[in-house]
Design brief:
The structure holds two protein chains of two kinds. Chain A is mainly α. Chain A is built from 13 helices and two strands; from the N terminus they run ααααααααααααββα. Chain A has one domain. In chain B, about 70% of the residues lie in helices and about 5% in strands. The termini of chain B are far apart. Chain B has a domain of about 260 residues. By secondary structure, chain B is mainly alpha-helical. Chain B contains 15 helices and eight strands. Classes of the chains: A mainly alpha, B mainly alpha. Chains A and B meet through helix 3, helix 4, helix 5 and helix 13 of A and helix 3, helix 4, strand 2, helix 14 and helix 15 of B.
Chain lengths: ~350, ~450
Amino acid sequence: MYEGLDLNTIWFVLVGVLLAGYAVLDGFDLGVGALHLFVKGDTNRRLMINSIGPVWDGNEVWLVTGGGAIFAAFPHVYATVFSAFYPAIMLILVGIIFRAVAIEFRSKGESVRWRQNWDIAFSISSILISLLFGIALGNIIQGIPVGADKEAYISFMSLINPYSLMLGVTTVALFMMHGSIYAAMKTEGELQDQIRTWINNTIIFFVICYITVTMYTLIYLEHMVVVFRQNPEYFLLALLNMLAIANIPREIYKKREHLAFLSSSFSILALLGLFALGMFPNFVPSTIDPEYSLTAFNSASSRKTLEVMFTMALIGIPFVLAYTISIYWVFRGKVKLNEMSY
Amino acid sequence: MDVELLSRIQFAFTIMFHYIYPPMSIGIGILLIFMEGMYLKTKNPMYHNMTRFWVKIFALTFAMGVATGIVMEFEFGTNWSTYSRFVGDVFGSALAAEGIFAFFLESGFLAILVFGWDKVGPKMHFFSTIMVALGAHLSAVWIVVANSWMQTPAGYKIVGEGLMARAEITDFWAMVFNPSSVERLSHTIGGAWITGAFLVISVSAYYIIKNKHLDMAKASFKIALLFLAMASFLQLFTGHSSAVQVGEYQPAKLAAFEGHYNTAPGDLYLAGWVFDDEEKVIGIKIPGMLSFLMYYDNAKPVKGLNEFDRKDRPPVNIVFQTYHLMVAIGMFFIAYSILALFLLWQGKLFSYKWFMQLSIFSVVLPHIANQVGWISAEVGRQPWIVYNLMRTSDGLSKVVSAENVLFSLILFTLIYILLFILFIFLLDKKIKVGPEHKNIETSTKQFIEA
């Protein structure tokens, strides 16, 4: 089946698409969570949570499916990364658990303390998840000590290094920017005015982080830059990314939040695109010997499995897009509270 | 404690905690179809309130299922990475299928089910209810397929040798329809239906005793009862065919179910205790009944545990006890259903306080049956993680230390205890508040005030 198709590369791209879908979609609801404590008053906080209410759970499915796709298509990547990052993954899971129940439980109690505690849980877990995913990404970009047996021994403390922390903070900043734009799009009146003033701050925060990370990468992480030197046309994507970011304040000024949101979504896709271009065909570069790096070719499942999975993707993706688009269409417009709301 | 024991405890604990919630979602999910269907058919607002009330309970159990479910997907990689490398080619595709075919469907339509009452028409809402139930069932399909492949692997070949050996798919559909998939799936779904039905029965019985929301409680009780009766009898057949299939493909597990050591005509124990060192069971038994159930011939020998090396046998007593407890609870469901249907026929279903009390407290039984049934299936597979292919002790992550696992196990234990207390507290609260929903004026008023 699918003769002549390079399914390893296709699956590298498809895994990227799933994780990019997660970053764009869950990115804004994590960002809303990160900003949650800045919003004052119970009704305003409810509006924040309910702006993501019907969609956050579906957004998280992109991560679940992305995880499943890596497990199936690149079992070695899944096994090496998840076991090497054990403590970080456990903390991400704690974040995901607390976040889900905070959203569900908060509205089920009336006392101020009950709600405040869940507000804190929701916000801290949102920040923690974003930070840890950024830290994980930072370590993967720098490479981890993958040996000949495809195993990598790393201590938790060595996961925390300047570059990975920088990427962690950048991810938080990116999602805050993305989330504030989404929240501005879904709210109205005073709350919207307040959120609109935050958007510029989050953009500045993100741009500072972004420039720092880019400089560091260009100077210290030679392997990420090679492909761009060989193919200067790839710089076009970096340029488009900068234009997209620059376009956000313009659209906000013109009160076209939905276009600002599209710009920041594009920006996230472009960032991940640049990352994927820099990495390909590596999933996890080895710091011991480049020969040991986990790639789309030496870590993949059999051709047969990649074929079966590709068929599944061809059948499944139209449905997934149809559900996603329908749900966002049904819940379009400003968020309103009613008795079924959180 | 070593990494293996800790990792096994952690996996068992996190999956058992997770598995409190999905059976409720699956069971309530399908009952919601009946409830909302009745509303569309009769236009009786009572059914509308009933549906809305159970949607709220559904949303709560679903959130718990989601929160605890992601843990499971990640744990294969974090704690069982050698296993993941070995089976990723086969097992991974079932998990990916669960994501793409079940979770997207379920989470998408869940939004409409819970938040979309005013956003879409009644028919579209009903359609969403059906899709959510379908999604919940499909996720059960894929995860049970994946687990059944670990019990009775099929449609694969082993490539490479020693540490680099791994299973690769040769026939996808043979993997999906491996010898135990259908039996185990139907038995699992049946268990989930009973769990959902008893939750509805229990809450309704509570209202009847408290003399609250009587119309809704009685109607819900009857819907759930008919469903329970059907599912309980169905379990008799799916349970029987599961056991026959286990006998054929995993004879050591079947022998452990009944503490059957020597290859000879098999007896069926009603209850007993296994003395594994002396290789005997003391209890009440029906001679030859195991052989009869397996082969419809009470003299035909059943393979005993002595055919297997000690290191290839599961721990017998745990499997024996959990299996018998599951069967006993299953028998109770049938007895309960017959009694309830008899009372219904007599027009006295709601007349006896003791029967209502029995109905309230029976809510925990399906959960116990689900858990112990699962234990007997999984412990019965030991010492294998993939039956006859890979030992559980060989599936561990090589780079994860015992301290790491101990740390995460303590973390999960604390969090899950907290979550469970809060879940019960909130469920109890929702039940006490009941189905009366605030009218639109009050919620608008709140909105303006706040």
